[in-house]
Amino acid sequence: MPHSGQQPGAPRRQIAKPWAAMTAVLLLSACSMFKTAPPAPAPTITRPAPAPEPVVVTARMLEARDTVSRMVATQERLYQIVAPLLINNADLCRTHAHELLGFTAKNKYSYPGEFADAAQAALGYGEQLQVSGVLPGSGAARAGLRKGDELVSVEAQPLPTGPNAETQAARILGPLVGRHSALSITVRRGSAVRAITVPVTRACAFKVDLGNADNINSYSDGQRVLITRGMVNFAQSDEAIAFVLAKDIAHNVLGHANTTRQAYTVGGMIDNLVAVRPDTSLLIGSAGIKPVPQDLDAAADYLALYLLARAGYNIEHAHAFWQRLAGQYPPTVLNGYTAIHPATSYRLGVIDKTVAEIKAKQAARKPLLP
Questions:
Q1: Does the global pTM surpass 0.85?
Q2: What are phi and psi of 229, to 5 degrees?
Q3: Most buried of the four, 58, 169, 334, 360, by CB within 10 Å?
Q4: CA 65 centroid distance within chain
Q5: How confident is the model at residue 58 (pLDDT cuts 50, 70, 90)?
Q6: Could you give the CA distance from residue 144 to residue 147 in angstroms, rounded to a whole number?
Q7: pLDDT, position 13
Q8: What is the DSSP letter of 207?
Q9: Between the CA of residue 188 and those of 123, 149, 153, 192, 216, what are the distances in Å?
Q10: Could you tell me which of 248, 252, 237, 251 has the C-alpha nearest to residue 317?
């Protein structure tokens, strides 16, 4: 019998069962409650980087470091000695006077082979060019540029690094020096980077190098001056070394290498001796270098004494030095200085007269012009 209020023949309503819905909720909750937790991530183990293999310093490496250190120290001494000769005599150097920045720069690749590693270990040179020498009295010295400064840029133009950086930087700096009275050079000094304004300096533009050989000699090819390690050791004092450098500067100013047609031969000797390990077999005999005629040699002595006096050196000792050199290393020592400059007696006579001439001008306060 149908319930009250239900039409006969109508379908029966489905009566919701709350317990069924609750059961479903509980089952879902149970599934949620008893779900397996994901595994914890494995702890990250940081292993220290392996220690670098210790560098085994061999006896040959130590020798290379010592060689480079001594070369650099002697070259720096030469810069100190030659600076006043170059800077104080720009007017006497004629067409050889140019605007210079007054510093040199090198990196480890300035030295070949094993000596690159030696330069890095002994001098701290790396990929970046570093100031290796500052010419006293130059614009670089006055501006405060220091040995060891790393060159970053010039006039906002980055400077090269790595192999050939020295040559590439010279190509960048050369035209700039010719167009500016001062250059803005950015350097790194320690952790600080700073811009330094370096005035250019007019000076005799001769490159002065140390020759890595023990023969007692010096050479000039019209553009460069080279003094051997042997000559430095023989001369000993800065004053005596200045006598030798001034003489070769004078030969260059007067164009004697071209006059005697020996620029190529002497240039080849210089190229050889600037190497860290030169070919010493080329020092057997005179190596094809002919003696300088006495009139040219005496002319160089005359100009050299003026260069020396204007640079502040005492020229009164010049006679004794050249006499001592000729006495200990006569022309029979074929790879020695006197073999190339044999007219010692004639030269000494010119030296004495020139010293007297210069002293008279100094006493009268006259310009020291030859």
A1: no
A2: -60, -35
A3: 169
A4: 16
A5: confident
A6: 10
A7: 45
A8: E
A9: 16, 6, 10, 6, 40
A10: 237
